[in-house]
């Protein structure tokens, strides 16, 4: 859905599928982000379209959030080798089979859940970084050794 013939009058648009590839998420996630106003776009019939520049900015913002979160965890004592960043873009981080999330609306608020599990099965969404460090020191009992979509396996340590 790229710009036609380099015409400066035609905006460079991407589909929800292309936006998903750029962001490292599913098409359904992109549609949810658009419906929630997190990713500005336009619905044309049943199809979402987005300015390429808006999606690229979202990608960079998400990447920056993931890197900042990783750096905070390293500073708190988590060895860098234990931190996994699937897709390299998504702001969640995996440590020993736990998904670690830092809230955008309150960066001092953390949550830890087993990978690919419902958030209802994890720990409180009001954790401190010290709480996170103590939880992820041990592998998630049900998720160690899980093979991820990117071909890597969640690590455990003994």
Describe this protein's structure.
The protein has helices at 16-23, 27-35, 52-75, 129-136, and strands at 13-15, 42-44, 47-51, 83-84, 93-95, 98-102, 110-114. The strands form two sheets. The chain has a four-stranded antiparallel sheet with strand order 4-5-6-7, with helices on one face. Strands 1-3-2 form a three-stranded antiparallel sheet. The chain is built from four helices and seven strands, in the order βααββαββββα. It is elongated. Among the domains are: 13-57; 76-136, no CATH class. Strand 6 and strand 7 (110-114) form a beta hairpin. With 158 residues, the protein is α+β, with helices and mostly antiparallel strands.
Care to give the gist of this entry?
Helices cover 31% and strands 16% of the residues. The chain has helices spanning 16-23, 27-35, 52-75, 129-136, and strands at 13-15, 42-44, 47-51, 83-84, 93-95, 98-102, 110-114.
Molecular shape: elongated
Q: Strand-and-helix sequence, N→C?
A: EHHEEHEEEEH
Radius of gyration: 18 Å
N- to C-terminal distance? 49 Å
Question: What profile does the largest beta sheet have?
Answer: 4 strands, antiparallel
Could you give the topology of this structure?
Blueprint: E1 13-15, H1 16-23, H2 27-35, E2 42-44, E3 47-51, H3 52-75, E4 83-84, E5 93-95, E6 98-102, E7 110-114, H4 129-136
Antiparallel strand pairs: 1-3, 2-3, 4-5, 5-6, 6-7
Quick tags:
158 residues, alpha+beta, three-stranded antiparallel β-sheet, 7 strands
């Amino acid at each position: 859905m790229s710009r036609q013939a380099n015409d400066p009058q035609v905006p460079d648009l991407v589909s929800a599928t292309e936006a998903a590839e750029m962001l490292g998420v599913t098409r359904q996630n992109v549609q949810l982000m658009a419906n929630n106003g997190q990713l500005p776009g336009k619905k044309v019939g049943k199809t979402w379209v987005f300015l390429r520049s808006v999606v690229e900015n979202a990608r960079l913002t998400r990447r920056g959030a993931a890197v900042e979160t990783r750096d905070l965890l390293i500073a708190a004592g988590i060895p860098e080798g234990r931190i996994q960043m699937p897709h390299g873009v998504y702001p969640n981080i995996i440590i020993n089979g736990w998904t670690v999330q830092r809230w955008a609306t309150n960066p001092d608020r953390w949550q830890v859940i087993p990978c690919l599990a419902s958030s209802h099965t994890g720990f409180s969404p009001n954790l401190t970084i010290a709480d996170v460090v103590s939880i992820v020191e041990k592998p998630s009992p049900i998720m160690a050794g899980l093979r991820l979509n990117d071909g890597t396996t969640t690590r455990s340590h003994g």
